[in-house]
Amino acid sequence: MMAGWRLVGGLSFLVAAMTAGLIVSHGGDVEGLRVAIRATARTSLLLFVLAFTASAMVELVPSDATRWQRRNRRYLGVSFAVSHFIHLGAILALASVDRALFWKLTNTTTIMLAGTAYLFIAAMAATSFDRTAAWLGPRKWRLLHLIGSWYIWISFAIAVGKRVPLERFYWPMFGLVLAAAIVRLLAMFGRNRRRGPIKAS
Ligand code: HEM
Q1: Which residues contact 153 (CB under 8 A, 6 or more apart)?
Q2: In the prediction, which pLDDT does 191 show?
């Protein structure tokens, strides 16, 4: 099983090749860019969920697979960042090719909120190396990655949630988003239970 930075290389290559393939097979037209935007949003969601639930999964269902997931949490997270910056690249390409369609598909509020998600993604990816993580310190690192990951989760919940009424396909996708939060919350409650009630002195 691939692991570590090689995993980041392999996954990044796959997402980049998929994006290029989709654009080329559509003859480089706007529809190809839209398909690429949707496809990269989906690879991003899968990679995000794997990183977001890694610690919780190993606590709830310890196995070789979840231990692999936990060991590779950082690399799955960085691969998510790569996939999502490819999403952004395709969006910027669409905006430059067909400005009118771009504004039909999005608006300033979304750009502000989703743009903030990108600031978190960039900051989290930048602090995913031993040296930069050490520079930030464990307390601030944990806070940045805790707040950032829930902000990204909310971004997915909104982006997928608003598409649920449009097409049935979005139901299972939305289910995956919800399941990720439930897994995290279950692990959190389990941890608190093991710690026992807070005793009043
Ligand atoms: C400035 C930032 C962003 C812009 C302008 C943007 C724009 C878009 C556009 C235009 C689409 C629809 C493409 C189409 O239907 O042809 C799309 C799809 C999507 N985006 Fe983004 N996006 C941004 C950031 C984000 C972020 C931060 C997330 C989640 C963390 C996200 C998640 C999604 C999802 C889930 C879809 C739906 C994919 C599907 O149809 O399956 N986007 N985005």
Answers
A1: 48, 52, 177, 180, 181
A2: 86
Residue pair 128/78 in contact (Cβ under 8 Å)? The answer is: yes
Q: How far is the CA of 7 from the centre of ligand 1 (A)?
A: 25
* Exposed/middle/buried for residue 88 (C-beta within 10 Å: 0-12, 13-18, 19+): middle
pTM across the whole model: 0.94
pLDDT over threshold 80, residue 1 = no
Q: How far apart are the CA of 182 and the centre of ligand 1, in A?
A: 23
Q: How far is the CA of 94 from the centre of ligand 1 (A)?
A: 12
Residues 56, 60: Cα–Cα separation, whole Å:
6
What is the rounded radius of gyration, in angstroms, for the C-alpha atoms of the chain?
18
Class of domain 4-188: mainly alpha
- Residue tagged 């590779």 (tokens): 72
Q: End-to-end alpha-carbon separation of the chain, Å?
A: 51
The Cβ of residue 186 has, within 10 Å, a number of other Cβ atoms equal to 13
- The length of the chain, given as a count of residues: 201
Task: Give pLDDT tens digits for 12-43.
Answer: 999 999 999 999 999 989 999 999 999 999 99
| Separation between Cα atoms, residue 26 and residue 105, nearest integer Å | 20
Nearest CA to ligand 1 atom 43: 37
